[in-house]
Amino acid sequence: TPQTQFQTTDFEFEQYMEIKAKKVNQALDEAVPLRHPLKIHEAMRYSLLAGGKRVRPILCIASCELVGGDEEAAYPIACSLEMIHTMSLIHDDLPCMDDDDFRRGKPTNHKAFGEETAVLAGDALLSLAFEHVAVRSVGVPADRVVRVIAELGKAVGSDGLVGGQIVDIASEGKQIDLGELEYIHVHKTAVLLEAAVVSGVIMGGGHVDDIERLRKYARYIGLLFQVVDDILDVTMSSEELGKTAGKDLITDKATYPKLMGIEKAKEFANLLVAQAHKELSFYDSAKAAPLYHFANYIAQRQN
Ligand code: GRG
């Protein structure tokens, strides 16, 4: 249950998300201008600007502001995070991976541009992500930029997204236990959310204690993200099954509700929200309001 100190703040979370997402979209649009060679830049922009909730950039900006940083310091890395997230979606959708036809309400990148271009668009976005944060973070002490680049690199590689994806692929068609399921989720989803929060804290000039506290917060909401996803799979209406998220059930993949039961999974989600909130209790409640509501938003999301 939410702490009373937060219930009394009349923070407009939806409005906050809308305002920040608009600024992020504008920054992303400017980060990848349409230029020669047209095809690759079209493909990069197609997926990058296709919508998406902008969860990772906004988490980054909110974390930067929480520790007293200027939000402008967070925009370059916020954009880099979205570039990486987008490229992981493009590659995840490829025929050699999940083989999906639709993403963010549009045909997937390889459906629109062909497989060769989709692979390259992903590669180009990944490379641009590192260039962008290094080049655009002007006025921020160089040591912060270097630390953030290290965070980002780790979140992408074999200890991050790639690690999660390879274990996921290896587990296909096999019975896996809760430990393995958690490894996949932590690496495919939570590490990038964690990198978003921690890089925001670093860019905002946060101290070691801030990094530790907010890293824990990020881990809780990262896991929460996936537990909620799994619960949504089960509670989705039957006509939705067989479309997108419901396919996990059909392919008999392990999920939290399956491994622990739907009620226990819901209890686990509530516990994760409470634990995330607890990490914020150190901060002024008005300043922590965005991250506080973010945890609720992830818990309550419907898609
Ligand atoms: C990163 C080099 C590199 C390769 C990619 C394919 C792959 C390795 C990793 C898979 C990563 C993946 C697709 C994880 C799922 C992440 C996830 C929770 C997606 C949904 O995120 P939302 O809900 O989506 O934030 P929107 O569209 O709103 O951004």
Structure description:
With 303 residues, the chain is an all-alpha fold. It has a single domain (11-300), classed as Farnesyl Diphosphate Synthase, CATH 1.10.600.10. 71% of the residues lie in helices and 1% in strands. It has 15 helices and two strands. The protein has helices at residues 4-7, 13-31, 38-48, 55-66, 75-93, 109-113, 115-136, 142-156, 161-171, 178-203, 208-235, 247-250, 256-260, 262-280, 285-300; strands spanning 102-103, 106-107. Strands 1-2 form a two-stranded antiparallel ribbon. The longest helix has 28 residues, at 208-235. The radius of gyration is 19 Å and the shape is globular. Residues 1-5 and 244-251 have low confidence and may be disordered. Bound molecules: geranylgeranyl diphosphate. Geranylgeranyl diphosphate binds at residues 52-53, 55, 85, 88-89, 91-92, 97, 104, 126, 156, 161-162, 165, 188-189. Belongs to the FPP/GGPP synthase family. Keywords: Isoprene biosynthesis, Magnesium, Metal-binding, Transferase. It comes from Nigella sativa (Black cumin). Pathway: Isoprenoid biosynthesis.
